[in-house]
């Protein structure tokens, strides 16, 4: 069995913590031969964990891609706005790529990346890890098997969780769309992808509503301060207290481990005192929505209502799929799927076992599939190829376009054509690396 060799660009939470456990467990299948990461702390940690030598470490992706081709494929796990250039350069250099979602915060760049991958005959797979989870694969199977007849409509709720929302989208890297991406893309492109996959048809029309309503300075409680450590009068009772949240044991609260590297108590307190994670949630530079709905109609007549909210107890996805012969209800957090048959009136409950891998088994699942696709030279029409993911990205961009224009209806055919025509004749060539 051919061993697949990989290099990693971006050794943060996703590049290291999410995908490297698979490499460590299956050394006969896959090997990492290089890493590019600007943080020396992260480079050192990565090198020690993956047994890399000094000559296999790079501080920038340009440095790594400036070398003769090192391996079969790259994992690109940088921030949203840092995907396009290394991806194009890697594809042009002959690498296959596993790219963290979203592809880009620019629809034109998404279109171009997919086109270059196709032109070069390379596998560009997007980390829509949810498709690889046993929960969502069971959902897909039930639909394909005709268990509920023809799908008519779907209601899909993304419960972000109030603490997750405050950490990632008020204080964290995804708080401002000029630094990352709009919420519908940064967080909910997983959901757009799942919806497109379950419906199995192109989207025809999109409209969306939502706003940043709560986490604004005018809603700051009386007596609050710029930072939780500035003598805030309500810190002890505030649900978003940085001191209470981030000084918890990191094994009990994985978010606490993400604000400092390494996450010692001293380093975390320094991050609270000086960095964005200690700011009052009502006084940051955040601008992404804290709630949003998207309405969709697909070419096969299926209608979908998607709702994202930052004001929920749990981090969860709940879905209801309504068909001509029955109904499916799913609760991802509890791994519970209910199937109701109209003819017999019977309710069946399917319990999905909990996975130890991240994203309910999706992180392991995508690594396993990517390695298998490379080994068997499957470069097109894979489960989360750029070709498959582009449509759901465009759905997200269309939803944001609608939201910013008062909920105006977006015709997806015209929306797609506008980016296809813009990209024509402007295909990016080799970069300077």
UniProtKB/TrEMBL annotation:
Residues 4-126 form the Gfo/Idh/MocA-like oxidoreductase N-terminal domain. Residues 140-394 form the Gfo/Idh/MocA-like oxidoreductase C-terminal domain. Transmembrane segments: none annotated. It comes from the Bacteria. Signal peptide: none annotated. Pfam families: GFO_IDH_MocA, GFO_IDH_MocA_C. This is Oxidoreductase. It comes from Paenibacillus glycanilyticus.
């Amino acid at each position: 069995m051919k061993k697949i060799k990989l290099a990693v660009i971006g050794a943060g939470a996703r590049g290291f913590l999410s995908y490297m456990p698979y490499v460590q467990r299956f050394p006969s299948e896959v090997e990492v031969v290089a890493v590019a990461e600007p943080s020396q702390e992260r480079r050192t940690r990565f090198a020690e964990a993956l047994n890399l030598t000094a000559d296999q470490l790079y501080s920038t992706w340009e440095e790594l891609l400036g070398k003769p081709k090192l391996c079969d494929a790259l994992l690109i796990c940088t921030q949203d706005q840092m995907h396009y250039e290394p991806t194009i350069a890697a594809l042009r250099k002959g690498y296959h790529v596993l790219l963290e979602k979203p592809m880009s915060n620019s629809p034109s760049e998404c279109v171009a990346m997919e086109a270059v991958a196709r032109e070069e005959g390379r596998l560009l797979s997007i980390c829509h890890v949810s498709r690889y989870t046993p929960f969502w694969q069971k959902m897909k199977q039930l639909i394909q098997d005709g268990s509920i007849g023809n799908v008519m409509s779907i209601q899909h709720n993304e419960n972000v969780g109030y603490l997750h929302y405050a950490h990632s989208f008020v204080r964290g890297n995804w708080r401002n769309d000029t630094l990352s991406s709009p919420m519908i893309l940064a967080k909910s492109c997983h959901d757009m992808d799942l919806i497109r996959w379950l419906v199995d048809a192109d989207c025809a029309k999109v409209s969306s509503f939502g706003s940043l309503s709560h986490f604004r300075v005018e809603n700051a409680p009386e007596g609050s301060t710029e930072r939780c450590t500035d003598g805030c009068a309500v810190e002890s009772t505030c649900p978003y207290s940085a001191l209470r949240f981030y000084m918890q044991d990191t094994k009990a609260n994985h978010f606490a481990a993400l604000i400092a590297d390494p996450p010692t108590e001293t380093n975390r307190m320094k991050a609270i005192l000086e960095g964005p994670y200690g700011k009052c949630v009502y006084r940051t530079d955040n601008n992404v929505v804290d709630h949003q709905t998207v309405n969709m109609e697909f070419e096969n007549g299926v209608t979908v209502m998607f709702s994202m909210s930052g004001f929920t107890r749990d981090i969860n996805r709940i879905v209801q799929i309504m068909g001509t012969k029955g109904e499916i209800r799913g609760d991802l957090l509890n791994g519970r799927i209910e199937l109701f048959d109209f003819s017999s009136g019977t309710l069946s409950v399917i319990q999905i076992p909990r996975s130890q891998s991240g994203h309910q088994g999706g992180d392991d699942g995508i690594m396993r599939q990517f390695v298998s696709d490379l080994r068997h030279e499957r470069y097109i029409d894979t489960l989360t190829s750029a070709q498959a993911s582009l449509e759901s990205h465009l759905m997200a961009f269309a939803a944001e376009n609608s939201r910013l224009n008062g909920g105006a209806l977006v015709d997806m055919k015209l929306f797609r054509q506008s980016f296809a025509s813009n990209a024509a004749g402007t295909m990016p060539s080799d970069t300077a690396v």
